[in-house]
Here is the input.
Amino acid sequence: MADTERYAQYERYEGGSAEAERLVFQRLAGEIMRVQVANRRASGAAGYERAFHAKAALGVENARLRFLDDLPPALTSGFAKAGAEYPATVRLSNASGVRGPDGAPDLHGVAVRVQVTGDESHDLLATSFPVSHARNAREFVAFAKAMAGARTPLQKAVGLFVKLPLAVGLGTASRMRRNVQAATRHTVNSLARETYWSRGAILWGEAGPVRYLLRPAVGGGAEPRPDRGDPNFLHTELAQRLSRGDVTFDLCVQRYVDERRTPVEDGSVEWKEAVSPPLPVARLTVPAQDITTAEARSAARRVEELTFNPWFTSEDFRPLGNLNRARKVAYEASAAQRQGTRFTSQEPLRNRVLGVPVGLAFRALNRYVPWHRLPLDASLLNLVFLRKALRRLNLIDTDVPEAPPRTQSVPVPVDERLRTSRSYDGTYNDLSAPKMGAVGAAFGRNLAPVYRPDLFDTPNPVTVSRRLLTRESFVPATSLNVLAAAWIQFQVHDWVNHRRYPEGGKTVEVPLPPGGGTWVNHPNGPEENVMRFAENEGVEPPGDRPPILFGNTASHWWDGSEVYGGDERTAKSLREPDGGARLLLDAGHIPVDRTGIPITGFKDNWWMGLSAMHTLFAREHNTVCDALRAEYPSMSEERIYHTARLVVSALIAKIHTVEWTPAILATKAIDVGLRTNWDGPPRNWLNQLGLWLLESHSLTGIPKTLPDHHGAPYSLTEDFVTVYRMHPLIPDDYELREHHFGQRLETVGFHDIQGTAAESQIRKTGLANTLYSFGIAHPGAITLHNYPKSLTRFQREGEIIDLSVVDLVRTRRRGVPRYNDFRAGLHKERIRRFEDLTREPETLARLKDVYRTVDEIDTVVGLFAENPPTGFGFSDTAFRIFILMATRRLQSDRFLNVDYRPEIYTPLGIDWVEKGGMKSVVLRHCPDLAGLLPREASAFAPWRPVPPTENGASHADS
Here is the structure.
């Protein structure tokens, strides 16, 4: 019988499916973490405790579990073998989530880890009452919330008689109270003489479901009564008992009879011994010892650091039932918060209460007045509520879910180095979910994907490109310089990259429209009537899902991988020999291989602007290394390298947040809003009061908050990739000028400064002259009819492609909704006529000619056609993806919030980021440019051009 069939016959999933139940349990796990927060606040503890069983009376590593020599064959399975003996770790505890005196009414528990081999272990957890007070996980969490932080009799009474009935109803609350009162009425003098029941069922190999219990082994004489005035008398009593002899328990199992008398799903029903007698199978022995020695105390501390979970076992002993299934995610979350690898922060009640009517008011207002036309303070608050709505409705988890839950081995402890350094491939950024956001992790979604193979070529993407995208005359973006275009490509290379099939592999074929001529797909290739280019390699989706899941070959984190590489081998190859901390440079420039290809972290689509950015930040890394070495002489080269990477990556994130983005979205609200993301809101009482009342989480900059994924594992999204298709920024030709005297050096086309030509050109021109030339030139505007001609016939990896056609095809095939559905999914009103998108006569006529209906308009076309808010370099629809994902990239990344601190970055590193910016980076490496940078604007605004002098000499730096 298959594993799933073995337990499916006994279980019933809440919501009708394992997947629906998983979503419920994820929410409940978050509630358990908030219970920990309340308990910590009530107890005043320095750190988080276990959500339950916080106070241990005993923790030992030298126990033994031995199965009986005459173990019945029916109960022999897996590690349960006649006469087999295994080392075990044992923890005995009080059940409350708040530490209190041992004499207070409470349940008690035992956790046992049986170590079978280095890879196999089994966790057994049991409590000192035969049944749970809760039938299922919902009731269990409701009870935990009602009692969270309750320490005094009055607080406990309020929890039991007020909060609990409000959460579960009077009848259920009454039943739960009776169970709890019966369980805690019993006077406990020694945890060695208590019986502990599993309360939930587990599989026991082919024997099927069982519940197990640990009861004191028969024997022992009269026992002295402990000193109950001692708040820790249970520990003291165990110490005295173990100093005299062993403490032993018999492990017994009760076998499943039928669903009525021995239910699997209802944890509140006792399996009566008259119905299912306990059958002894093994003996647990805690050997006599002195648990007061330094060695024993050290062992107890190690036991306290352990995380126990009934799912740390094998499939033959899989936990069963609703409560047990919930325990997997709840225990994982609780343990992760306790160990500082996962975080939670609760929205204040005032924000939750006031946020509802204010959010509704803004929604109603925006039907008539968009956010960007409101007064500054109102528009900032409007953006706060827009972002909250987007977080709630537009973060779709594309991870393949673990539903139903699976057993697992005990997780390997996190490498301590990963707590203070970024990994090479993006793993372990979230220490509780190591693969989140790593290289290979799937792109998420902001909108439900639309998979329509029948519309892949409708309308013909070549027609769309030639009629609506291709540049006819250059339209400049006069508020920006070309460095802004180079910068965003530099960033996108860090964030996203879809793997393509290698040459000769699977391809996409796009038929040329009638009368559309022919196309040459490869250098020296034949003329054909189709465009052909490499298809993206997808991730095989589970079940019957359409094939629209793709992995990111870059990490999703803001970690500078375009400079440092996305794997250990690449990263180490870019460093100076013998493990040096500095990056390899060739006379201050990116080194190249024998073919002229740059040696750097990410080199696709290489051109001179990209080279300038890589050169600048490779130099910056080396300068940070030198500063760290001088300030901290005892720091190792390895530590210097990783600290410098943290500093440079954070500086890049800050520059993008507070400089590049306000430059391309040039409005006061965006400038203030994004600086608030980093530094907190302006010192303005109205802003401060508004945020305190409505969104207090924004009262500090994100670097001073805790990581928050907002209900979905962190990833960048396919929709995010779509809105960052900003190729119109690239000009087709460039005038390279000398920065001292303003003399023209030469005029070049894009093809003259891309690919293998880029590095020779930047060396000839010099970095300072390159930055100056791009600083005084304008990029293209992000609009229709402005796609660079040089990218419509572009050679890449043995292919000749029209990148504008590729952009359209990729977006369609990846299931990104068409423009009208895209904007509606982002809570904007649908357009009903072509005139709702543009009134420009020629564009309007072409749209009507290319598309049959407004619902057919391609996403990229609609985003370029849309009339943006005043000052914006791209559309308000695209901005909605931005406002959601821009803060998410900061908020999810622990190295940009909870671990953005001097202990990790060093005080010098934090100071470097806080005082640094694009101007300081430019001037550190090209100080002669000081007088040319904008006085009041960012480095991405147009620079001051030097008037050419008649006799000025050309000069190029190295």
